[in-house]
Amino acid sequence: MISILISAGLLFAQPAARPPRSRVEGTVVNAASGEGVRNAIVILRSQDEAAGISYADETDGNGHFAIDDVQPGEYSILAERQGFVFLPPGARGAPAPSLKVQPGEQVKDAQIRLTPLGVIAGRVLDSDGDPVRGATVSAFVYRYTNGKRAQRNVEQVQTNENGQFRLFGLRAGTYYLQASRQPGLRYGAVVAPGPNLETAPTFYPGTTDAEHAAAVELRTGAELSGIDIRLQSPAATYSVRFKLPAGEAAAGNVNYRPMIFPHSADRLAG
Fold this sequence. Notes:
The protein is mainly beta. It folds into two domains: 19-116, Immunoglobulin-like; 118-230, Sandwich (Immunoglobulin-like), CATH 2.60.40.1120. The chain is 4% helix and 44% strand. The radius of gyration is 32 Å and the shape is elongated.
């Protein structure tokens, strides 16, 4: 738009005054330490899906960001960074906080909190204490569904050549770890199965019974190491047949009950 200015008999043309620009700036901080988070992506998402414009910026070394020439309107503001999770305040699943930008407004104190994720690391060992390569390690949590307690697998990795594993990107909470390996696989090579190579899925620190698994408590942003799982052999089962005297069986004078003997297959075979 061009406005006309007449002064002292002269005719001048000058551009109309530009409305003041809106600006949104602030800081992305670590929710656990309060320090600025560098290289985080800040997203200013317009709530007007039809005509609105969304913006993005990357934080500097101090976690600071600034977005210029923001169109007035309603926005959701959030941030993303590997190793962190954005958790809006309020109940789980709550939407990102909203921000209303007025024409020419200078928003200078926006703060976005990112929660650091945790790590659980350790090794998988066999019965001799040797590292197990290529074992699968799973992290479980317990959830209640329709009043029933059930396991849910939230992360899974494989051990490296030294039997080491690293479960990362975990939120704070209580975890149960389970390790297993492919039957007949030892040190990365396929071998003939045998009683000394068979293993059962084993919970940390070394039990095949989920009820006896040890819980691993992970705090926000913590890195736990030294979590070693020793694989166990599967429990052997045996069938026993016996014959009762005909007279006593007919009289109903015989009582019996099953018994479990904690012997390994190797000991029984010997």
